[in-house]
Write a structure and sequence with these properties.
InterPro entries: NDUFAF7, NDUFAF7_sf, SAM-dependent_MTases_sf. This is Class I SAM-dependent methyltransferase. It comes from Luteimonas terrae. GO terms for molecular function: protein-arginine omega-N symmetric methyltransferase activity. This protein has two domains: 10-61 and 178-239 and 271-294, 3-Layer(aba) Sandwich (Rossmann fold), CATH 3.40.50; 68-176 and 248-264 and 302-393, 3-Layer(aba) Sandwich (Rossmann fold), CATH 3.40.50.12710. With 394 residues, it is α/β, with parallel strands linked by helices. Helices cover 37% and strands 23% of the residues. Helix 4 runs parallel beside helix 5 and helix 8 packs across helix 10. Strands 2, 3, 4, 5, 10, 14, 15 and 16 form an eight-stranded mixed sheet that branches. Strands 1, 6, 7, 8 and 9 form a five-stranded antiparallel sheet that branches. The chain contains 13 helices and 16 strands.
């Protein structure tokens, strides 16, 4: 039995109405319709109003969803175990670049464990577009870390400047990239646009441009069959450019992406004909992505085949692909759990640790829904994917 989410406050509803008015104005300025990706971009990132730009709580029990780092230290410590050998191969100039820092929980736990492993990066950079989240991250990390570790943390406004060596890490980032949506009609590819419908929003279709159209045809070619009429889904033709941009001048090191999604053949199955787009509000999932703009998260699953193509096209070697369970177990989850249990104050604390591990790894929780994919350049990163590699499915 699901519990209804609490109704938004009057202030929250006023905030949403302000963002709705901004989007309506953009639609009118564009002649009556904007691409869906533009609607998603505004809903999530409009300065001061978008879901990730405003000040409401996003993460944890008081927010709209729980990410793996918010559950406790086990996730971040396993990632630290995976990337520490890369940082050690590079040496004293190694840097760590986290995209989308969330509450700062990951950075705090990862840095502390990297210090224990003797693999502290020279700099820990966080790319976080939300000023509010930056403040929360800074406060958390000042409290969590000793001064010498905190001094290595800095916030950047874009990709790492110049050439650099180290590790790029992104957990639940690609699912929040503003995505185009396409529809197949009489064998042709159309792009979904958003219109104004009274006080709300509606949908209309425009012929897809060459970039989106050719990307859909590429999917059909790999499927071995055309997508049926009426098929609606998401596709990120700009993903290769995004990966190249965020990697920037990474001349030596590794990239690790974790998100929920599918391989291409699974993503574009005939029966997944409404796509994967959904909204999260107070731990409730809804298909009404137009409701409460600015108050709910919008997300679409990741095509990991497309991500594999993007990483290799950016000049990196493919290192491995597996689900989150395999990644964590292959990078000392059991040992990290045992170490924390040994230090736990009582049985209640040990029980909480075991529950944390279960949520991270059980098939009905995060274990199979979340996937991990890695890339390397002039370093060994294959060790991170020694258990449960699923590269053959890409």
């Amino acid at each position: 039995m699901s519990v209804a989410a609490p109704s938004p406050s009057e202030d929250a509803l006023a905030h949403s109405a302000e963002l709705r008015a901004l989007i309506h104005a953009q639609i009118e300025d564009a002649g009556g319709a904007i691409p869906f990706w533009k609607f998603m971009e505004l809903a999530l990132y409009a300065p001061g109003l978008g879901y990730y730009s405003a000040g409401a709580a996003k993460f944890g029990a008081a927010g709209d969803f729980v990410t793996a780092p918010e559950l406790g230290p086990l996730f971040a410590e396993c990632i630290a175990e995976a990337v520490a050998p890369v940082l050690q191969q590079i040496g004293r100039d190694a840097q760590f670049f986290e995209i989308g820092g969330g509450s700062g929980a990951f950075a705090g736990d990862a840095l502390a464990h990297l210090a224990a492993l003797g693999a502290v990066p020279a700099r820990y950079a966080i790319l976080e577009p939300s000023a509010d989240l930056r403040d929360r991250q800074r406060t958390h990390l000042q409290q969590r870390l000793p001064a010498d570790l905190f001094a290595r943390v800095e916030w950047v406004d874009g990709p790492m400047p110049g050439d650099w060596q180290g590790v790029l890490f992104a957990n639940e980032v690609i699912d929040a990239l503003p995505t185009p949506r396409f529809v197949i009609g009489e064998g042709e590819v159309y792009e979904e646009y958003v219109t104004r419908d009274g006080d709300g929003f509606g949908r209309t279709l425009h012929p897809a441009d060459a970039l989106l159209g050719s990307a859909v045809r590429h999917v059909e070619q790999q499927r071995g069959a055309p997508l049926p009429d009426g098929y609606r889904s998401e596709l990120l033709p700009q993903l290769p450019y995004w990966v190249q941009a965020v990697a920037g001048g990474l001349t030596r090191g590794a990239m690790l992406f974790i998100d929920y999604g599918y391989t291409r053949r699974e993503f574009y199955r005939d029966d997944r004909d409404a796509g994967t787009l959904r909204a999260f509000h107070r731990h409730q999932v809804t298909g009404d992505v137009f409701a409460l703009p600015g108050l709910q998260d919008l997300t679409a699953s990741v095509d990991f085949t497309a991500l594999a193509e993007a990483g290799t096209h950016a000049g990196f070697d493919f290192a491995g692909y597996c689900n989150q369970t395999s990644l964590l177990l292959g990078n000392r989850l059991e040992q990290r759990l045992a170490a924390h249990e040994e230090r736990a104050a009582d049985e209640a604390a040990r029980y909480a640790l075991r529950q944390q591990a279960k949520r991270l790894t059980l098939p009905g929780e995060m274990g199979e829904a979340f996937q991990a994919i890695g890339f390397a350049k002039d370093v060994d990163f294959d060790h991170a994917f020694l258990i449960g590699d699923m590269s053959h499915r890409l």
